[in-house]
Amino acid sequence: MHIRKAVSADAEELCSLLNEIIVAGGTTALETPLSASEFADWFIDGEFPLVCHVAEQDRSLAGFQSLSLYGDPPKGYADIATFARIDPKIPGVGRALFPATRAAAEEVGLAFINATIRADNVSGLAYYAKMGFEPYDRLVQVPLLDGTPVDRIKKRFRLGGTPHRAV
Asked: Cα(67)–Cα(48) distance, rounded to whole angstroms?
């Protein structure tokens, strides 16, 4: 698997990958499919993205991972988003992407990478735990567009190699 920074030309293929996940439902807080231009703005070259990496396998994009300052996170924090193609599913995409994302976060001087994961996203919760993220907060009963309440688990990864105990 080859990891590289995303470029604007990737937006259409990555948007398609993300929209499949959104339409499938149950794992992302995003509920409305994006256009390729919205995708580029949100994840690649808009005001808030810090970096977006893609994983390529067999000349197609298997997934992506981004760091963003959207929503005005606390100083020293950025939010991570990780998405892997669901059809065909390719194991190890997130694991392959994280070292590049971590290095980029350290390069810009972040103290923490924040992940906010739906409580019903079992695979997402497991992935971030395997990467070393630790829970530190919970947003209770955040409503989906249809009104269904779903908790959000906030996990963070401390940069700089110092272990951190959840508060």
From this structure: 9
